[in-house]
Specification:
- The protein is an alpha/beta fold and 265 residues long.
- The chain contains 9 helices and 5 strands.
- A 5-stranded mixed sheet has the order 1-3-2-4-5, with helices on both faces.
- α5 packs antiparallel against α6, α6 packs antiparallel against α7 and α7 packs parallel to α9.
- It is elongated.
Length: 265
Amino acid sequence: MSGRPGGGGGRGGGAAAGQAPYAPGENDRLPWLALSVDDAIKQEEGTIRPILVLYYKSDMAKDCCAANFERIVFKDRSVVEFAKKFKCVRTTEMSEGKIKQYGLDTKKPAIFLFDAEGGLLHKVQVCQNPRTYFRAMTSAFKLNDTRMKLKKKYLALRKKARENMGSEKYGVALRSIESMLKKRDLLAGSVLSMIQSDRKEIVSIGQQWLSDADKKRGDEELLEAYEMYKKIKKEFARLDSLGKDAERCAKQVKAELKDLGLTVN
């Protein structure tokens, strides 16, 4: 077999003349571990080693891509040698949450590349030749390295955003969080998970503030309601629906106060 990526490639992964019929899970060229995705990520906690996951099922024997992955891609010498830089996992199970998260077609095999913290680097569910997959692996490996190197930087930015949240400067915090989310390709899995959670928390707080303001308005505590709506508009303007709702309500309450002879800014 050639050392060049693609040197062992053919069009199909089925049995050649004299070769036994393909059996899912037969590949022995890599040090495959039988783990769930979650367990693989947990084992790599605190390391910088990326994770390669082959997802397959026993009933995929007739699937051309399943055979392609095991008989062509993961038998290519260059692919195999480079894949050893990853934690190599083979699994037949995938949780409903991850199926939805990764847009996984459970009727087909898949190869995932994760960073050391479970952040997705690459996913493929179509037949590929070794040369194409070798490029994907090398690119993913470099991206994992970049994410791990930048982790401290983004954790520091996240810490500052949390401080602003603690000071009820939600607009400032949200601006920082959304700026980081625009660079999600550079975020380690744990960092991405935390700032996504932070954003959900801000949304939840904004919704609660709006509910509290609505209650004050319903109890005819109009001045307090008006001030709350103004504050929501200021702090949650980046959350379009919340900001607009607060602005609309503030205008309505201002008109109600004017009818009562009260002028507010």
